[in-house]
Amino acid sequence: MNLPLLVTDNITELLIKIIRFTQMRQQVLTENLDNFDRPGFVPKDLMAGEFSDLLNDALNEHIRSRRLMLRDTENIKFGVNGSFEVRPIEDRDAKKLLQENPEEYLELQLNKLFENSINEKMTKELLKQKEGIIPILE
């Protein structure tokens, strides 16, 4: 995933991180759908709540001090030049649902994908309005 160097301020940087997160989560959720019928498959997800809390803390810091402080968590690690990694974790509730009711499991995964897609589209629109353009995300 390469982004052009369009980060002009802290808010733009956060919007780009949200877009990246939603793209990573889409990949994980798609794998949950593609592999649900494989023996021994364990569904995973990204910690959306953890990511949201992390961004809320960063926004609060930005409001207080006009600087962006992104702190690593157990599942999210920030690197240089705006990079970050998110570790998928086992989704125990989805695993149980898959064992008990595969149809409901599939519906859950589709609903998560739909919600994730809405979040990505909304964030891209916010970025578009803020910057006047949308970066090409691969």
Could you name the key traits of this structure?
two-stranded antiparallel sheet, 7% strand, two-stranded antiparallel ribbon, 4 helices, 138 residues, mainly alpha, elongated, disordered N terminus
Quick gist of this model?
Helix 1 runs antiparallel to helix 4.
Secondary-structure topology with pairs:
Elements lengths: L9 H25 L9 E2 L2 H18 L10 E3 L5 E3 L2 E2 L1 H9 L1 H30 L7
Antiparallel strand pairs: 1-4, 2-3
How much helix, percentage-wise, in residues? 55-70%
Please work out how many helical segments DSSP would assign: 4
Q: What number of domains?
A: 1
Beta strands, count? 4
Order of helices and strands: HEHEEEHH
Compute the average pLDDT.
Answer: 89
Pairing-aware structural class of the strands and helices? mainly alpha
Q: Biggest β-sheet, characterized?
A: 2 strands, antiparallel
Overview of the structural elements:
The chain is mainly alpha-helical and 138 residues long. The protein has one domain (10-131). Helices cover 59% and strands 7% of the residues. The chain has 4 helices and 4 strands, in the order H-E-H-E-E-E-H-H. It has helices at 10-34, 48-65, 92-100, 102-131, and strands spanning 44-45, 76-78, 84-86, 89-90. The strands form 2 sheets. A two-stranded antiparallel ribbon has the order 1-4. Strand 2 (76-78) and strand 3 (84-86) form a beta hairpin. It is elongated and about 50 Å long. It starts with 9 loop residues before the first helix and ends in a 7-residue tail after the last helix. The relative contact order is 0.21.
